[in-house]
Amino acid sequence: xxxxxxxxxxxxxxxxxxxxxxxxxxxxxxxxxxxxxxxxxxxxxxxxxxxxxxxxxxxxxxxxxxxxxxxxxxxxxxxxxxxxxxxxxxxxxxxxxxxxxxxxxxxxxxxxxxxxxxxxxxxxxxxxxxxxxxxxxxxxxx
Length: 142
Prior knowledge:
Elements: H1 3-14, E1 22-26, H2 34-43, E2 46-48, E3 56-62, H3 70-78, E4 81-92, H4 102-111, E5 115-117, E6 121-122, E7 126-132, H5 137-140
Parallel strand pairs: 1-2, 1-3, 3-4
Antiparallel strand pairs: 4-7, 5-7, 6-7
Helix pairs in contact: 1-2, 3-4
């Protein structure tokens, strides 16, 4: 395995992906960072496509500015995941085609009811933003 493949696999784990997870991938296209995608796929038990209709453990969401409404995409991404699930939003880096403003990401995440955490650069073209669905356990405390 190459050093960059090792790095991508390590990055996938640091961002919160774990073995035995079912991860739904949304927004896949020719421009995604294939090395990172392969690393996630190698790490988890299954990388399911957009048509997956069972409960996923996490979501890998590739999103570009021209893909439509980010809030809608985030709400859709939360529909088939457990409370507390990781949603990793991947957007083109600053200055790249399809770049999404950080303020737009923050606003969309808040509107979708997601907690925003710091992400990391993914390859040369993409950056990640970790989003987490609220944990229902807090609301269930007596």
